[in-house]
């Protein structure tokens, strides 16, 4: 007789498939990245990120209200800093009236219950496009960490609920945690980009913020001295465990699609929430193939997103968040 178990029984139709489905995507899964620019009435499309926009503060208001109505309750803020305000030390990052600080207030005014997370790193503010201070032919770790801690306090002063250091300097989580505690910000969260790889997938993001590393005689035009080597696995676990010991509330794996193995391994290893970031290049790749008619946009969007959650992600930072939620509601 044929084996008693026929696996296809549970795949016969959508009713049974949905009954046994293990991974369900909901609006609660998402963190929505937002790009913010100076000016008024600006909603400009990012060339390498079709249908994704930079907003000026006035239009940011409407956008976050729309997100809230769709059930998207957490945002991750990034600012595009004018060139004349950039320097080696990211001085503008500490301006209490800087674009990030005003953006935080704008989101909180428009939507007081929206969870506001902010990117903490020097690159949008750096004239060299690096996540840390450049000096002596290197990216200076400890000097940078001091500024990241100050920057975090400044964001929380403006109303941020979480800071998200994306710089990969050593020891920054502890420094930020101590700075926040010293200021009495005992309820502020830290989402650490803990396993962040030196990836080719960040290209469109650097277009969005005009933040790519520039040519320097004594420093390579990449971030390989601080972001991780994509060939490595054990290092990701070590980085993540250290960040948890230093006080991170949420850890992250980044990028997403090519790092599902790392995501699952970290999820099995740690007992705090794990986030994944489906980064700009992944978004661009899917958009480009869909535009050419080579892939089905919505199918790939849902398949990759579900794969993150299946692989262990508790939180997904995604440029598709709005599209996905609209699709779910439709
Ligand atoms: C800045 C930062 C980057 C991203 C998030 N924060 C770029 C980088 O490290 O060069 C990438 C996000 C994306 O590609 O979508 N430190």
Give the SSE layout.
Layout: H1 14-20, E1 30-37, E2 43-46, E3 49-56, H2 57-69, E4 74-79, H3 99-110, E5 115-120, E6 133-135, E7 138-140, H4 141-158, E8 162-165, H5 172-182, E9 189-196, H6 203-209, H7 234-246, E10 250-254, H8 260-269, E11 274-278, H9 280-291, H10 297-310, E12 315-318, H11 321-329
Parallel strand pairs: 1-3, 1-4, 1-12, 4-5, 5-8, 8-9, 9-10, 10-11, 11-12
Antiparallel strand pairs: 2-3, 6-7
Helix pairs in contact: 2-3, 3-4, 4-5, 5-7
The structure holds ligand PBG.
Quick synopsis:
This protein has eleven helices and twelve strands. The protein is of the alpha/beta class and 330 residues long.
Q: Which residue ranges are poorly predicted, with pLDDT under 50 across at least 5 consecutive positions?
A: none
Biggest pleated-sheet summary: 8 strands, parallel, barrel
Strand pairing plus helix content: what structural class?
Answer: alpha/beta
- Counting H and I runs of at least 4 residues, what is the number of helices? 11
| Element string (H = helix, E = strand) | HEEEHEHEEEHEHEHHEHEHHEH
Rg value: 20 Å
**End-to-end C-alpha gap:** 45 Å
Strand content: 15-25%
* Total count of strands: 12
- How are the strands of the biggest sheet laid out side by side? 1-4-5-8-9-10-11-12
